[in-house]
Structures are given as C-alpha cells and as structure tokens.
Amino acid sequence: MIRGKFITLEGGEGVGKTTNLAFIKDYLEQRNIPVVVTREPGGTELAEKIRQLLLDSKSEAISEQAELLMMFAARAQHIKHVIEPALAQGNWVLCDRFTDATYAYQGGGRNMKISAIKWLEDFVQGSLKPDLTLLLDAPIEVGIARVRERGALDRFELEKISFFENVRRAYLLQAELYPARIKLIKANQPLIEVQRAISDVIRTLPGLHPLNCSSSSRHGIIK
Ligand code: Z5A
C-alpha cells in the first residue's frame, strides 16, 4: 500500500480554511484520491472534548501551559487514531490546522517558548510532518470581519488585535523557515482566485491521478 499524503491548511481566523478544505477534497476526489478530512484541535472523540474545553469562552481561565499541553494531548490522540491509520491505508489526509497553528497561536500569540513547542512536537509526532501546508494569509481585519459576521465568538476569537497580529507574524515566520513545505496563498481575494492559487500548488504534488471527467463536469470547478 502506498502511503497517502498529509496536507494541512493554516491561517488566522476567517481566512477561509474550512471553505477551501471542501474545495481541495473535491479536487482530489475527482482524481480518484481517497481523502480523509479532519481538524485540530479535534478529530477523535477525546480530542473533540478537549477542543470544546479549549474554545469555551466561559471556562475557568486556562493557563498558557495547560493550553499548550491540551493542544498536544488532542494531537497525540488524533495522530494515533486518525492521521497515521488513514495515511497507512493510502488515504490523503486533509487537516484544518496542525502544529504550525501551535507555533503561531501558543508561540506567537501567547509568547510561549519555541523550544518547549519543538520538544512537544518531536515527542508527540516523531517523524510525522505534513507533506504540504497551505498557509492562507490575509490582513487580520479581513478575517476578523468575516468571523464576526458569523455570530458568537469563541475563547480565541475574543483576543485583542495585537494577539492576532502576533499570530499572523508567527505564521509568516514558519513559511519563511520551511519554504519547501509551506506555500503562502493570498486569501484576501475573490474565492475563485484563492482556489486557482490552491489548485496550482496541489497539482504539482506527485501521485495525482488524471482527472475523472464525469465528476469534473458535475462540479464544474477549476482544473
Ligand atoms: N488553535 C491553537 O491555538 N493552537 C493549535 O495548535 C491549534 C488551534 C490546532 C480553533 O480553530 C482555534 O484553535 C483557533 C486556533 C486555535 N482559534 N481561533 N479562533 P478553528 O480552525 O476552528 O477556528 P477558526 O480559525 O476561527 O476557523 P474559522 O473561523 O472557521 O475560519 P476559516 O475556516 O479560516 O474560515 P471559513 O469558515 O472557511 O470562512 C469564514 C467566512 O468567510 C465564511 O463565511 C466564508 O464563506 C467566507 N470566505 C472564505 N473565503 C472567502 C473569500 N476569499 N472571499 C470572501 N469570503 C470568504
């Protein structure tokens, strides 16, 4: 069995990760690639419970250390029970956020020690790294305006603007450090242009089958 590829989507609030995950799933399935879509924090029963605790704006104040450890506790479950088995069975895994989010939010946003994050990354992931990361980037006002339109805000969305500026800066630093893996996508443009940029990157991945014509005409999306 050929191992599948691990693709992650990253970026600040409201940049369009969830929207474009659906687009990529469609794009790959049209090329007969089996896809598993998942998210972090979350993706297993236990990890989704940790997610609820992390996002609850009414919970007791969560210490920065606890927040970091909860992210990695959820990730450990997710890797063991979802990501690794899916990849081993030849599925491509599309994940809404992964460890770059920890560098951005806990490292950049909360100013936690990068060396602690790196240690936890090695401990929890071993050699597992995404094959490709799409970093959707837009000025923070754009994403925040999109999220506010949606209604009630979670514990992270209630943070100050300076927090989101630090998160964005840390994401861009990750992209600078790992240019072969992390591809920057301008998210502050019409969705069709964002998806064109995404498909330009995805189509360069080795292992893609030719387009399945019946489904391409059904969906009518960018090839
Ligand atoms: N977190 C962390 O701190 N550390 C970690 O290690 C991890 C996570 C893994 C939960 O994430 C929180 O966990 C997150 C970081 C933290 N903090 N927050 N907040 P999440 O992924 O669930 O939360 P999110 O980033 O807020 O997701 P989101 O609000 O759903 O944003 P999105 O998925 O990027 O956007 P979307 O839902 O696809 O799009 C938002 C709206 O914009 C929607 O109405 C779209 O139709 C619209 N949209 C999308 N693209 C466009 C374009 N191009 N033009 C116009 N409108 C658009």
UniProtKB/TrEMBL annotation:
Pfam families: Thymidylate_kin. InterPro entries: P-loop_NTPase (IPR027417), Thymidylate_kin-like_dom (IPR039430), Thymidylate_kinase (IPR018094). Residues 9-198 form the Thymidylate kinase-like domain. Keywords: ATP-binding, Kinase, Nucleotide biosynthesis, Nucleotide-binding, Transferase. It catalyses: dTMP + ATP = dTDP + ADP. ATP binds at residues 11-18. GO terms for molecular function: dTMP kinase activity. Phosphorylation of dTMP to form dTDP in both de novo and salvage pathways of dTTP synthesis. HAMAP family: Thymidylate_kinase (MF_00165). This is Thymidylate kinase. The gene is tmk.
